[in-house]
Amino acid sequence: MTEGTHGFPEEPVIRDKRRIDPETGEVRGASAQDGAAREGGPAAEQAGGGSADLAEARAQVAERTLDLQRLQAEYANYRKRVDRDRQAVGEQAVVKVLTELLPVLDDIGRARDHGELSGGFKSVAESLESVVAKMGLQSFGKKGEPFDPVVHEALLHSYAPDVTEPTCVEILQPGYQFRERVIRPARVAVAEPADPADAPAGEADNG
């Protein structure tokens, strides 16, 4: 036994190094170790891993969103093509029927010009003309309008001093169009301006 600072014997210090606390039966230092582990160990790793997983999930959501938008755009374009094709097929069927009726409409027009459109025939003719007009058929071609090779077909040609450009001077057969589509051009007689050099000398001097 050793003596202390004041000459009194110093009591021995007993350190209990037992890992199991005899009173509680718990492992000494386990709570502190668990706290430290929770503060700086797996929790930190889980936090870092969670951020990476969240970023990956967001990237996948963005990619799936783009895929969905592309699919929607492709479907919308597909629907438009189908609608256009369906409309085109329907218009072709209508044009075919109207084309078959053009000779009948020509007969009605000639009968009207000769004053032969009367009685029951007149009623039927007007009903037919009303029906085809509702379907979208329109006639065109007027005397005196400029000649347009896109919508006019010249059957007769002449020169005239009273025109300044190629002009339809006679409508031999009206043209027909369905909406913006020409079914049959108007058949016309065309006159072009006369060349003054071709006129007789006296007429040229008087002009």
TrEMBL record:
Keyword Secreted included in the entry's annotation: no
Mainly resides where?
cytoplasm
Q: Where is this region: Disordered?
A: 1-55
The record's listing under CDD domains reads: GrpE (cd00446)
Transmembrane residue ranges: none
InterPro entries documented for this protein: GrpE (IPR000740), GrpE_CC (IPR013805), GrpE_head (IPR009012)
Q: Where in the cell is it found?
A: Cytoplasm
Q: Which Pfam families match?
A: GrpE
Which SUPFAM superfamilies did the record assign?
Coiled-coil domain of nucleotide exchange factor GrpE (SSF58014), Head domain of nucleotide exchange factor GrpE (SSF51064)
Q: Which UniProt keywords are listed?
A: Chaperone, Cytoplasm, Stress response
Instruction: List where Basic and acidic residues composition bias occurs.
Output: 8-26
The job of this chain, per UniProt, is described as:
Participates actively in the response to hyperosmotic and heat shock by preventing the aggregation of stress-denatured proteins, in association with DnaK and GrpE. It is the nucleotide exchange factor for DnaK and may function as a thermosensor. Unfolded proteins bind initially to DnaJ; upon interaction with the DnaJ-bound protein, DnaK hydrolyzes its bound ATP, resulting in the formation of a stable complex. GrpE releases ADP from DnaK; ATP binding to DnaK triggers the release of the substrate protein, thus completing the reaction cycle.
Q: Which family does it belong to?
A: Belongs to the GrpE family.
Q: Subunit structure of this entry? A: Homodimer.
The molecule here is called Protein GrpE
Originating species: Yinghuangia aomiensis
Q: Which gene encodes it?
A: grpE
